Amino acid sequence: MLEFYDFITYSFFAIEIGHTFFPAQSEYGSLMLSLATFGAGFVTRPIGGVVLGIFSDRVGRRPAMLLSFALMGAAILTIALTPSYAAIGVAAPIVVIAARMVQGFALGGEVGPTTAYLIEIASPRRRGVVVAWQPASQEIAATTGALVGVILSSVMSPEMLQTYGWRLAFLIGAVCLPFGLWMRRTLPETISHGERAAGSAESSSHVALARRHVRVIVLALMILASGTISTYVTQYMTTYAKTTLHVSSSLAFTVSLVSNGLQIIGAVFGGWLADRFGRKPIMFWPQLVVLVLTYPAFLWIVQAPGAWSLLFGFGILSFIGSLPFTAFYAAFTEALPQNIRGGVFATIYAVAIATFGGTAQLVVTWLLHVTGDPLAPSWYLLLAATVGLIAMGLMPETAPVKVGER
């Protein structure tokens, strides 16, 4: 949660960060430069996924998690404390982009080891609800970031928020870093010394075993592409509500707060359902509902952009859309052998996130700009939901309740 808070908070304050580090002749130009820097954090995520994911398989989950957290801490402090473009010129955006790429490397190596860790500490018939805390922690981070945004936008003027308010939001995450490092140092390791040694000796095992799981890996890539587009378009709704629907900053942050809060509930509930009814039903049917509801929800929001339409429209999509991906996290990790689990999951996750998550907000902003149609985000979400639905229908069932594992 702490690590994702540091990464996601950037998107909530993309406008203010754009004004601070990327002055341009137009609001659109400044926002696009800011979002491009947000995307720069995704470029290094596959590298972090490969390096730290394989590191976790060979050395251990805990060392990999500690390293990724320390790197994220250094990067968030750098962004929060870097002077503005007006103060130090072109050095400011260069430093911010570099820090953002370090963040991406750290987060790329975060998800694989932690998801593998959760699978390995859970009893077989509780894996879904335990692994649910991986996506749920991401939504807790987004909810916390939105809550901070609501508070800051309520007590600060727009000028104060742009000057130093967004920096306070970043520093709140930095304050928690010592606690996070201490907490991870106390975790028991889930890979024995013998397993780590075997993994180091058999350097080709990752490639050989990964080839045997090509079908699952391809389907996982499609599902993650769908999920990350949905996630980062949802995170963009704060900016969308302010710039396209022209609602107040406090309402825009409140919508994000409610949507992300519902996704926390949905993620854990989805894991609970996946343990009882299997992974595939909980992946497929909620995803189908999201596909059906996306366009009508956006149509309602655009035609009547008020508090109720925004809260209910985005809230319903967020809750239902969070159900399938907890089941997927469990299914994908269960389908992978332990000695390649951290590296493969981290790499596939990071590649999908880098390719589709890093570009999602840029694509939506560009679509809105060139079409002038406020419904443009729904087009991209419909395409993503369709791809995800097809892949979820083809994903193998791995739940113990279905396959008879004891």
From TrEMBL:
Coiled coil: none annotated. It is found in: Cell membrane. The chain crosses the membrane at residues 31-54, 66-88, 164-183, 216-238, 250-272, 284-302, 308-332, 344-367, 379-396. It is a multi-pass membrane protein. Keywords: Cell membrane, Membrane, Symport, Transmembrane, Transmembrane helix, Transport. InterPro entries: H+-coupled_symporters (IPR051084), MFS (IPR011701), MFS_dom (IPR020846), MFS_trans_sf (IPR036259), Sugar_transporter_CS (IPR005829). Gene3D superfamilies: MFS general substrate transporter like domains (1.20.1250.20). The keyword Cytoplasm does not apply. Residues 1-403 form the Major facilitator superfamily (MFS) profile domain. It comes from the Bacteria. Belongs to the major facilitator superfamily. Metabolite:H+ Symporter (MHS) family (TC 2.A.1.6) family. This is MFS transporter. The lineage of its organism: Bacteria, Pseudomonadati, Pseudomonadota, Alphaproteobacteria, Hyphomicrobiales.
